[in-house]
Amino acid sequence: MGRPITLRHRLALGPFPESDGWAWLYRSFSRLAPAGGRLRRAACGYFWPHALERWHGGRLYRLLGVGLFGSVIPTGGIRIRRLTKSRMAPYTLSGTSVGAARAFYYKTCVFESLHLPFFLVLVGLTIHRASIGRVDLALENTAVNLLLNIYPILHHRRTRMRIVRLLRCRG
Question: Are the beta carbons of 94 and 103 closer than 8 angstroms?
């Protein structure tokens, strides 16, 4: 008998949701990184919550204020949804089923992936500006990156950690 398939490996295999508007991206990912391949394992390993993130049930995120940021984030924070009376369905867990949790796990991977290139460009720009002596602009770029990329990435990682905890209880 082989090793039992873990939740991490089940999520890496898919199936990816087809009806959430991101199916084209999931299909591209499946073509670029076929199930079982090195690239798929590396990508899924990156998105899987790491030990430091899981430490004391996500204490790192609480210390960094990621939950507070998540409550006011314009694309789905609970305070923004209450204020605007909007469900903001694409950014919200759509149901209580295991399938809905898995689909939302994949969405958080997509949302984080959308922030990564901008994060990297701003890091490069910050380093360049610091190296030419424009520390004022480097600090400005760092602040923008923190607000528009780093905290959203941390928010998506925290959400994924919470979804994995839910899936372990349910599935």
Answer: yes
